[in-house]
Design a protein that fits this description.
about 160 residues, alpha/beta, Nucleotidyltransferase, domain 5, six-stranded mixed sheet, 6 strands
């Protein structure tokens, strides 16, 4: 799903969002193709959250936003899916950027696994897991949407000469 019905451009920074009930993880895909966790924002109040994310996207000159879509393991929509889709619509309107929702299954689990062996306190893990989950969403989105794209045939011909 894209909001508003425009795909995220093939080049430029992209903000990644891992929505949650209490905290919302944030990460950025920079112009070099590196995904960097930024941190988290409080989920409430919702209007403040939307304004902060839109401001982050503007500040980092993002060309789009990817919002995690929590699906059940069988691929069906979960109770949180509706909330993620609503957040995506709100962000698209506030930031005036294309927004896509993207499957976030197992991203929090993956992020927790990365933090497990670091000797962090529970509080430190909680503070970082949301940003790492947002980064995982962006990494998989990037791998699927951007990294697999081949240059147009005209560019391939020029390289082989």
């Amino acid at each position: 799903m894209s909001t508003p019905d425009v795909a995220i451009p093939a080049e430029g920074p992209v903000l990644g969002i891992d929505p949650g009930g209490k905290r919302v993880g944030v990460a950025v895909l920079n112009i070099l193709g590196m995904v960097l966790p930024i941190g988290y924002l409080d989920a409430d109040p919702r209007d403040a959250l939307v304004k902060k994310i839109a401001a982050l996207a503007l500040d980092r000159q993002c060309v789009g936003i990817v919002v995690g879509l929590p699906l059940n393991m069988d691929g069906t929509e979960s109770p949180g899916s509706k909330l993620s889709r609503a957040l995506a619509r709100e962000l698209g309107a506030a930031a005036k950027l294309p927004v896509e929702v993207y499957d976030e299954r197992l991203t929090s689990h993956s992020a927790e696994g990365k933090l497990a062996g670091l000797g962090l306190t529970r509080r430190m893990k909680k503070a970082n897991v949301d940003a790492l989950a947002a980064a995982a969403i962006l990494e998989t989105w990037f791998s699927e949407k951007r990294a697999t794209k081949k240059p147009p045939p005209s560019e391939l011909e020029e390289e082989s000469e």
